[in-house]
TrEMBL record:
Protein name in UniProt: Adenylate kinase
TM spans (from-to): none
Broad enzyme group: transferase
Upper classification of the organism: Archaea, Methanobacteriati, Candidatus Hadarchaeota, Candidatus Hadarchaeia, Candidatus Hadarchaeales
Gene: adkA
Stored InterPro entries: Adenylate_kinase_AdkA (IPR023477), P-loop_NTPase (IPR027417)
Binding, ATP: 10-18
GO cellular component, one term: cytoplasm
Swiss-Prot/TrEMBL catalytic activity: AMP + ATP = 2 ADP
EC number of the protein: 2.7.4.3
Organism encoding this protein: Hadarchaeum yellowstonense
Length: 192
């Protein structure tokens, strides 16, 4: 029985998903295999089973009570996967909604997931802004550089709070456009 679960988080555009995919390729070549789970995809699957076709970016617009119930159910599903094979969860530390920030990993989610480690991916706010502009596949919120910097700062505080609640370690990985390979190496080292 595995029960190993690691959470990788970062603001939209930080490059976390791209980093995860590259790190998993390297790890597989080393004989280390993780199941990659995108938390939002699991939530979307649950919502679509209840409400039909829903746009992924509409998750941020869901009423909080419904969103929280779906968040909890997604945590249960992901936790069951970790019993079979190590799991790498791709998610957001905080969810920015029009009324403010909500925890992406509230207490009840952490209790279900029982993460071993949290990896927080960061990048220069200007780089993140450029990456978001280039990503035509998503309906990303336009944010000023200062807002992206604030979100990353709050992510750090949230990650430490999550670690205090769960006993998980926190690793911060810088993912600059020029330092991608180093960022991948840092994640691979943490997951071996």
């Amino acid at each position: 029985m595995s029960e190993k679960l690691v959470i990788v988080t970062g603001v939209p555009g930080s490059g976390k998903t791209t980093l995860i995919k590259e790190a998993l390729k390297v790890l597989r070549a080393m004989g280390v295999d993780y199941h990659h789970v995108n938390y939002g995809d699991v939530m979307l699957e649950i919502i679509r089973s209840k409400k039909g076709e829903v746009d992924r970016d509409a998750l941020r617009e869901m009423p909080l009570a419904f969103y929280s119930r779906v968040q909890r159910e997604a945590a249960r599903r992901i936790s069951r996967l970790a019993r079979l094979k190590p799991v790498l969860v791709d998610t957001h530390c905080l969810v920015k909604k029009p009324e403010g920030y909500y925890p992406g990993l509230p207490r009840w989610v952490l209790e279900e997931l029982k993460p071993e480690s949290l990896i927080l991916v960061e990048a220069d706010p200007e780089e993140i802004g450029r990456r978001r502009t280039k990503d035509k596949s998503r309906r990303r919120a336009r944010e000023l550089t200062e807002e992206i910097a604030e979100h990353q700062q709050l992510n750090r505080a949230a990650a430490i709070a999550y670690a205090a609640l769960s006993g998980a370690s926190v690793l911060i990985v810088q993912n600059s456009d020029k330092g991608f390979k180093k960022a991948v190496d840092n994640i691979v080292s943490a997951l071996r």
